[in-house]
Design goal:
By secondary structure, the chain is α+β, with helices and mostly antiparallel strands. It is built from 12 helices and 10 strands. The protein folds into 3 domains: 87 residues, Butyryl-Coa Dehydrogenase, subunit A, domain 1, CATH 1.10.540; 110 residues, Butyryl-CoA Dehydrogenase, subunit A, domain 2 (Beta Barrel), CATH 2.40.110.10; 141 residues, Butyryl-CoA Dehydrogenase, subunit A, domain 3 (Up-down Bundle), CATH 1.20.140. The strands form 3 sheets. It has a 4-stranded mixed beta sheet. A 4-stranded antiparallel beta sheet has the order 2-3-7-6, with no helix packed on it. The model has no long low-confidence stretch (mean pLDDT 88).
């Protein structure tokens, strides 16, 4: 692996860091600022700030300039992710669009789709959701039942999607639906990816409250909703291949941003362990707890060097392919290890978001609860291990 950055990369880091210093207010870097806002207020604050970042040229770092991106390298994208994490900058409101849909439209979209989708997405004018999971088709996506029946120049959509991120704030949703019945035993056949307007009477989004108290997810109901047949991405009946390409962008990036964020989280957990009294001495003096914290740190350092390995490979133009599943396994399980250490420090009290030990623990508690989901979404750990075993190591089924 190559642990060095080029002069061009370091110039980009200095430029972006200077822009963050000048344009990211200190209060927006603090958890207390966001805790005082409603979900809608927080979303709009993030959306407005991110739009300004895009106008300044710090969005779509690795996208081609012809699509409004910066035309940067994989290393520049990793530096961008790292600096965002170090500054505790607000998370993107359009993650599904920027990370997954945008690159897929560039690869497969018609010229009209590229013109109508990419620029509004990049500037947060259009917020995108992903409509894949259904109540009866979660881990088995090929079992989806949502129908899209041809009606002249439109499709008529009926069905339900669930676990939809940003459902309550979405403007459009990319949906997998059946445009024709399965071809015999080929369950993946007959599925298409449709780009659907959420601001129509036939689409209803309902919030799903999580154990953190937030409603980042929602469920979306389609009742005779319409979608023009020009808004099929990748061609009718090619939805499964389109979805697999889209999901490959989710798993293939270097995890330097995750490492930076989780290491900062680990440092906070260590500080709490030093402050918290346990039987007349600091919790950090407990040898079992110290071992757990050390184990989490070891996992973090392994993640860092794996991330550099991935970054070196992608910077050299290598397509990681199925190896990307290894990155997903590593960063999600490392996140869990750090969160488990936090739980061990506080005990059952970690479940109380408002608890204070001289510092607010709301953000850490929310992250610890959120970590439970990261080994499931984007392909569960069991699925990822099967992929690595079969596709990377060549083991028999």
């Amino acid at each position: 692996m190559d642990l060095r950055h080029s002069e061009q990369d370091e110039q980009f880091r200095a430029e972006f860091r200077a822009w963050l210093d000048a344009n990211l207010p200190q209060e927006m870097r603090e958890p207390a600022f966001w805790a005082d806002l409603t979900d809608d207020e927080a979303f709009e604050a993030r959306r407005s700030w991110e739009a300004g970042k895009a106008r300044a040229g710090f969005a779509g770092i690795q996208w081609p300039t012809e699509y409004g991106g910066r035309g940067g390298t994989p290393t520049m994208k990793a530096i961008y992710d790292e600096e965002m994490a170090l500054a505790n900058a607000p998370a993107t409101v359009n993650a599904l669009g920027l990370a997954f849909l945008g690159p897929t439209v560039m690869a497969l979209g018609t010229e009209q789709q590229k013109k109508s989708i990419i620029a509004p997405l990049l500037n947060c004018e259009t917020i995108w959701c992903q409509g894949f999971s259904e109540p009866g088709a979660g881990s088995d996506l090929a079992a989806l039942q949502m129908r899209a029946e041809p009606q002249g120049e439109d499709y008529l959509l009926n069905g339900q999607k669930i676990w939809t991120t940003n459902a309550m704030h979405g403007d459009r949703i990319f949906v997998l639906a059946r445009t024709s019945p399965p071809d015999g035993g080929k369950r993946h056949a007959g599925i298409s990816m449709l780009l659907v307007d959420m601001h129509q009477s036939g689409v209803e989004a309902r919030p799903l409250k999580q154990m953190t108290g937030e409603s980042e997810f929602g469920e979306v109901f389609f009742t005779d909703a319409t979608c023009p047949n020009s808004e099929v991405l990748g061609g009718e009946g090619n939805g499964w291949a389109t979805a697999m390409l889209l999901l490959s962008y989710e798993r293939g990036a270097s995890a330097i941003a995750q490492y930076t964020e989780y290491h900062r989280q680990w440092e906070q957990v260590v500080a709490i362990a030093r402050e918290l009294d346990r039987d007349g001495r600091p919790a950090s003096a407990d040898p079992v707890l110290r071992q757990q914290l050390a184990g989490a740190l070891v996992e973090l350092e392994c993640l860092k060097y794996h991330s550099w390995h991935v970054l070196t490979a992608t910077a050299q133009g290598k397509d990681l392919g199925y190896e990307a599943s290894m990155t997903k396994i590593m960063w999600s399980e490392t996140f869990r290890r750090v969160s488990d250490a936090y739980e061990a420090v506080l005990g059952t009290a970690f479940q109380v978001p408002g608890l204070s030990t001289g510092r607010s623990l709301r953000e850490l508690t929310a992250l610890a609860m959120w970590s439970r989901s990261c080994t499931i979404w984007g392909g569960s750990q069991q699925v990822q291990r099967n992929v690595v075993a079969e596709r990377v190591l060549g083991l028999p089924r």
